Amino acid sequence: MTASSRAHSFNTAAGQYAASRPSYPSALFDLIEQFTGRPLAGARVADVGAGTGIATALLRERGADVIGVEPGDAMAAQFRTAHPEVPIVRGDGNTLPLADASHDLITYAQSWQWTDTGRSVPEALRVLVPGGALAVWWNTTAFDVPWIGAQHERIADHCGVKPTSRVRPDDSDAVRLAGLSGLRVARRHVRWSRTVSLDTHLANIGSRSAFLVLAEDDRRAFLSEERGRLREAFPDETVEETYVVDLLMATRR
Questions:
Q1: Contact of 15 with 53, CB cutoff 8 Å
Q2: Which helix (H) or strand (E) is 215 found in, with range?
Q3: Looking at the domain assignment, is residue 81 inside a domain?
Q4: Res 85: pLDDT
Q5: CB of 47 within 8 A of CB of 55?
Q6: How many CB atoms are located within 10 Å of the residue 161 CB?
Q7: What's the domain range around 118?
Q8: Is residue 246 in a domain?
Q9: Is the pLDDT of residue 21 over 90?
């Protein structure tokens, strides 16, 4: 299965994605403000790969003048329904439909891995104003929580992907950005958690690209077995999900 197929698979479950995916902690946006040396309030921000607008809405709540950039039909439609007051344009990180030197900050929440960094990095630098910043982040697995680590291995095995034991599989993005002349790069991790129903937790798992490209019967079988396992661990069917946000930031010196 190609990366492109996985990237576009989200359009088959846009509503599920919007309803079940985790948000992001306020500490994440505090770190971005500290790194850039300016408040998000009033900043011109482009949220690329905006999806259903989870991060976009939080940026707007901080006072940012934000626009969403999203390639997927269904995801963009869900975005417009949930956030009719926020502009959204169609496009992706490899070819941004934005003017040169037009934004103070470009963000990628859960979407940087779907870009070709040989194209997306120059595009981000083109669109940023002098002194502007790029912020890339992911909600990643808290491997030190035993049940979460075990579930991660089951999911990887079922989907035929290699399980990892680190916050991110590798540091190639940080190394690549740090190697570009004139860029200052920083990486931070933010731990946080949310409490959700078992149904929401399973819907979150089912909204991942590795699952969405599987046959429907295959997905249902795994999630049914997982429900049984988790009922033993969480008899009240309330699940505390723990995440580690992996944040990568870059700006011109």
A1: no
A2: none
A3: yes
A4: 96
A5: yes
A6: 11
A7: 3-141+166-193+242-252
A8: yes
A9: no
* The pLDDT of residue 231: 96
Closest CA to 199 of 168, 176, 169, 231: 231
- Minimal CA–CA distance to 96: which of 72, 126, 116, 75? 126
| pLDDT tens-digit readout, 166-206 | 545 455 565 556 555 578 899 999 999 999 999 999 999 88
Question: Which is it for strands 238-252 and 103-109: parallel, antiparallel or unpaired?
Answer: unpaired
HSE, side-chain direction, 13 A CA sphere, residue 44:
13
Domain count, the chain: 1
Closest among 41, 32, 44, 251 to 133, alpha carbons compared: 251
The answer to whether residue 31 is domain-embedded is: yes
Strand partners, 188: 247
pLDDT in tens, 131-141: 999 999 999 98
In DSSP terms, 89 is beta-bridged to 69
The domain that contains 86 carries what CATH number?
3.40.50.150
Per the listing, tokens 């992907």 go with 161
Q: Do residues 10 and 211 make contact, with C-beta atoms less than 8 angstroms apart?
A: no
Residue 157: count of CB within 10 angstroms of its CB: 12
Runs of H (alpha helix) within the chain = 3-8, 14-20, 26-36, 54-61, 73-82, 117-127, 146-159, 172-178, 198-206, 209-212, 216-233
- Within-domain flag for 209: no
Q: Are 243 and 138 in contact (CB under 8 A)?
A: no
The CA distance from 73 to 58, in Å, is 22
Neighbouring C-beta atoms of residue 114, cutoff 10 Å: 21
**pTM recorded for the entire structure:** 0.86
